[in-house]
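Changelog note: in this version the structure field was regenerated for every chain. One regenerated record is shown below for reference.
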Amino acid sequence: MGLTGRWRRATTVAAAAGLVALSLGWSTAGVLAAKSSGCEGGGFSVLGQSGTVDTTVASPPATFTVQGKYNRFDVVASTFEVRDYKFLPTTNPLDMTNGVVTPVWEYKRPLHGGTLTSAVSVSLSGENVVLTRTGRVASGAALTMKIQAADCAAGGIFQMEVQRADIDPATGLPRKTIFVHKLADVAGIVRPFFFDNQNFRDRIGQFVTADANGNTVNCTPSADNRFCVQVTQRTNVGNDNSPKFVGRDSPQGGPAPNNTVRIAHPECGSPQVPTIDHCGGVAVWLVASGGRMGFVTGEDGVEVAPPSSQCTQNCQAQDRVRGRLAVLGFPFPVAADDRLTPRLCTPVRADCPL
């Protein structure tokens, strides 16, 4: 349980969280990681397609719905902005909804400034969907957007990728794209919020792993033990309805300067020492071309995972290390001084484009 109003001691962060490296190449279908038991009976229907499909849809409506058993969301066809992402209540043992429809994102908005005009490529297989569409940015350079999702109760279930051909003269690399992730703002007990996970903060700097029984134990790092991982600060998404509901943003990009980074907002944070410049209802990311922003939920959202590995093709959204990493969980209910405030960055500006 969280301890509301408790004074947080200053903690030295021994290592940066390493917003991790990936390649500049596209990942392929089926990369999202979730326990198969959490996806039982899952599968999406979209643009009149369902089952196992690999096709294109030439003239999609302006906004279309991706409907599953566990999740649903809308997609703006011209930009691939995602709107109204929510979990649906089920009887699955990994269900995080506590029996009610659970909104998560008001929108996940890629500010690439372009327009997607091609047919929409639709690939459906089992619980997975991959949507791809191409177009041009304002300069006329090529633009490609991809959405991958898994219809599951929990796990690594969503990612959005961008690839663009216009060059940033400061780096000589393709321009990065601002992604704005705004949490749903609904009345009642299912209003989601970002919070500083005290279970992680209490162990910052420690090296931990899971023993044979799945218990968290301290360990000594070594070059041949990738399951012994140092704990860093963890920002999660939670709500006041469900003691199981938890998630986190999961970024990947290439090596600096083509990495993917969160834009800090000094007007936001928490009483923790040291604080983090993160708002309670919105996160703004600068995403590398060829990089992605994922959404990881449930146990996967609170495990102490190593940085994602770099790759150039067939990139996995999550390394296959299930059961070998420490899972720290999260306090419920979340203490008031662990919740990041204010909800939105203000005023509206280039790095706060609400």
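Spot check on this record: The longest helix spans residues 198-201. The two ends are 33 Å apart (CA to CA).
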